[in-house]
Amino acid sequence: MATIGARIAERDRRRFVGRDAELAFLERCLDGERGASVVLVHGPGGIGKSTLLRELARRAGARGRRAHFVEGRELAPVPAALDAALAAAREELEPLVLIDTYEQMGGLDGHVRNAVVPSLPERALVVIAGRERPGRGWLEGGWERVAVQLPLSGLSAAEARELLAVHGVADDARTRELIRWAQGSPLALALAGDEALGAAGAAGGDEVERPELVQALIRRLAEAEIDGPHLGPLAVAAIARVTTIELLREVLPETDALQAYMWLRERSFTEPLGEGIALHELVRKALRADLRHRDRERERALRRRIADHLYARARAGQQLLSIDLAHLVRNEAIRWGFSWEGAGEHRLDEVRPGDAEEIRRLLARWRVPERWAPAAPYFEQAPERIAVVRDLDDRIRGFELSVTPQNAPPLAYADPVLGRWLAHAREHGGGGAVLWQVAIDFTGDPRARVQAMLGMSGIIRSGLANPRWAYLPIDPRLERAVAFAQAAGARRLPQLDCELDGHPTHCYLLDYGPDGLLGAQRALIYRELGLAPADPPADGAAGSPSPGRSPEPPGAPGVSAPAARAAGTTGPAAGAAAVSGAASAAGAAAVSLDDVREALRNLGVPHKLADSPLARGETLEQRAASVRALLTETAARAFGDTPNEQLLRRVLERGYLDPASSHEQAADELALSRAAYFRRLRTAAERLVEVLARPPGGR
């Protein structure tokens, strides 16, 4: 007689899709071909770990091997309970032990490794699945020879389509929408496609707004890791693109920022990003939608505070925070042309051999071949002015060509698009202008946000700290492009329009105002919140180039201002103490080039610096400060006075200690080719290793 349990198991089997590579690997482990006795599966909530274990159990059953399940959520946190659950496995020759939700069994990790697994039969296979990466104990002491990691990522688009079809979603448009929204999460796809939640309209745009769907996602993705005292930091992380200690301290002054940051850092649904951490995209969207639904005023207040914090830091010289300000804008017309949302699936790159011909082919395919002739000379004569967007498979998905009056190559002045625009910018004092000749999205999908990345690319590659003007090439045939220009407040300059092979390009001039792009971004966020514009600061004017070297700080002789800023010193005593303690500690330890380069890359990421072998101190902040102090003090005494030595020092400063907005910009500033710049950057890092390796007091 068929049972309810059998029906559930059969339904689960029919709904399983994808994971071919992971299952092939696990089946080889079952057959003893991989020499692995323990497989450590890890990935964020909702990524399909439990589903994968159940499918492995079915395949093992077909081979005549019995699976012994242990569910971490249901197990009492005592060794005896686990020993009892696996008593039967010890009596078999080839047991398959499947331990799920391992993050709930943290207190038993040592017992599992030191007692449970060693007591199982030699031909046993243990598969442990959890949200967190395996602890260090699984990667040393001999375990590295029998234990392997198996990280799970999201489903591919084809697998996601198959899963939605299994759940009854047949409409092509809605399928594409749900695939984009779910970010590869099998759980989100299953929930959105489940008739119990309403097949029609489960997700609109890229927002998760239906309360029942939001609550289901939160319950399944993160509820076990969310509690009352941390709802404030979670709300900040749901709104901000990147959450840092400084952001939490300023936005939530009543909260212990360091403690809140460390709590967020330990969640399975967060990951390092830039100078801080970010929520897994699906969790972020669900939490943000829930916050809006439950407490819209709280969400508005937090968004304003975050905008103020980012604006102040960006004005102080951290230009790339324009990306984070753009993240707070909700206007869809603006986000179409200026945001960084597509960076999860795409990346900016420089021109490579073969790109020119491929872009020429794509322009013809997308019926804009007239854009090729004006752009073609730059691929040979000024490739640094071109940015290419590639997807995860390395395919070209878009490109842009932009200049400023400061970096425009000679050929730009004869350019049929840019020539007159540059003359207009110079005539009207537009030294702080960014001018695009072309920005083409080859995806045809506005939700991919490639067009938005192309807009952001021109800004971050411009070398301007806070642009005042933008000259936009708008094809009047593209409704979204016109809507973007109008929503941004740009005005058309008909006298600067041009025709390319009979196709018009309209010139739209966007004046960001006296407070520049950064002020315009904050003002837009304020308007969306229904607030009066904030007063701009009295100091500084928009449109100036990125600040270079600042005067040496008082009381810090021998340490350059960039080094002092990287070290985070607030006074001569604090700086000297940190430098002295870190340097003497490092002198007694072996220093590797990889350690130094990793620390240089992460100078602005406190939790990564704190994990560095170079770090000293007790708290996260102390350890991060010790690494900054060590590297900046070492840089101050590592180079000589010859021109070549000073160039090495400047390369190190603009690459890491006082970084330009990109390595490309740093190379431009220093008049170096990309290859020469990176050669010197490596040499400078090696010099730091050499100095650090000397005994204390040695020369």
UniProtKB/TrEMBL annotation:
<dbReference type="InterPro" id="IPR041664">
    <property type="entry name" value="AAA_16"/>
</dbReference>
<dbReference type="InterPro" id="IPR003593">
    <property type="entry name" value="AAA+_ATPase"/>
</dbReference>
<feature type="domain" description="AAA+ ATPase">
    <location>
        <begin position="35"/>
        <end position="171"/>
    </location>
</feature>
<dbReference type="InterPro" id="IPR027417">
    <property type="entry name" value="P-loop_NTPase"/>
</dbReference>
<dbReference type="Pfam" id="PF13191">
    <property type="entry name" value="AAA_16"/>
</dbReference>
<feature type="compositionally biased region" description="Low complexity">
    <location>
        <begin position="557"/>
        <end position="571"/>
    </location>
</feature>
<feature type="region of interest" description="Disordered">
    <location>
        <begin position="535"/>
        <end position="571"/>
    </location>
</feature>
<feature type="compositionally biased region" description="Low complexity">
    <location>
        <begin position="535"/>
        <end position="547"/>
    </location>
</feature>
<protein>
    <recommendedName>
        <fullName>AAA+ ATPase domain-containing protein</fullName>
    </recommendedName>
</protein>
